[in-house]
Design the sequence.
C-alpha cells in the first residue's frame, strides 16, 4: 500500500506577482483548485497561478510546520531567493523615486536631556 505524501508549496500569480503558501496531500488537484475562478477566495482573484516551490513530507504535521515557518518569514523577496531560486531585481521607477522625494522628513524636535519628566507649564 502506497503511503500518502504531503507537500508544502509556494505558488506565484502570473498577473499580480503575489505569492501564496500552503500545504496539501494532492499537489496537482490543489493547483487546479487555485486556478479555478471562484473556488478559493484569495487565489481566485489573482490567477493564473504557477507552482514555484514544493517540498514533500511523510506526514501532514511536517508539511504544516514548514508552511507556518514560511508564512512567519513575511519577506517575499527572501522567500523567493532562498527557497525558489528567484532573484527579484526590480529597478526603481521614476514614479517611485519621485514619490520618495516628495515625502517630508520628520520634523526636528529639541530633546531635553533630563532624568525625570518636566511638568508642563
Sequence:
Amino acid at each position: 500500500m502506497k503511503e500518502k505524501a504531503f507537500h508544502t508549496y509556494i505558488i506565484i500569480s502570473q498577473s499580480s506577482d503575489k505569492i501564496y503558501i500552503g500545504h496539501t496531500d494532492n499537489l496537482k488537484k490543489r493547483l487546479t483548485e487555485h486556478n479555478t475562478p471562484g473556488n478559493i477566495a484569495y487565489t481566485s482573484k489573482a490567477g493564473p497561478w504557477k507552482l514555484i516551490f514544493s517540498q514533500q513530507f511523510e506526514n501532514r504535521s511536517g508539511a504544516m510546520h514548514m508552511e507556518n515557518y514560511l508564512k512567519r518569514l513575511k519577506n517575499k523577496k527572501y522567500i523567493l531567493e532562498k527557497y525558489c531560486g528567484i532573484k527579484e531585481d526590480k529597478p526603481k521607477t521614476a514614479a517611485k523615486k519621485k514619490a520618495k522625494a516628495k515625502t517630508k522628513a520628520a520634523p526636528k524636535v529639541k530633546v531635553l536631556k533630563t532624568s525625570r519628566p518636566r511638568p508642563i507649564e
